[in-house]
Amino acid sequence: MNADTEGEDSQPEEDGEKGWKFPSFGVFSDYIKKLLSLEATVGFLKEENKRISNELVNVQRQTSQQNGQLKVLGEFVRMATNVQIEATARKSATKTVESMIEIMRAAQSKRD
Predict the structure, then answer these.
(1) How far apart are CA 16 and CA 35, in angstroms?
(2) What is the mean pLDDT of residues 9-36?
(3) In contact, 47 and 55? CB cutoff 8 Å
(4) Distance between CA 2 and CA 21 in Å, rounded?
(5) Are 23 and 31 in contact (CB under 8 A)?
(6) 19: helix, coil or strand?
């Protein structure tokens, strides 16, 4: 039993030695490289986000300008259409009055 007890006593000492160890320089170096790489990536993404945000602001500004231009153009077309409709209505009214005058003259000449 003594041999078993000694084996058990020596086992925890080995586990303690295999437990946590300070990382080697290579492992620590790789960790730092990865950390710096991530930091650079985050910096790049922040810059890219800022650039895209600026582009978005420009696109929104252009969209607003085009929307305003479309409103002006729509108003111009509406007014031009109204003017054209009014001109056509005047011509039609004038022709109607002229036709009525001719009919009245024809009717009066028949009486005479």
Answers:
(1) 30
(2) 72
(3) no
(4) 31
(5) yes
(6) coil
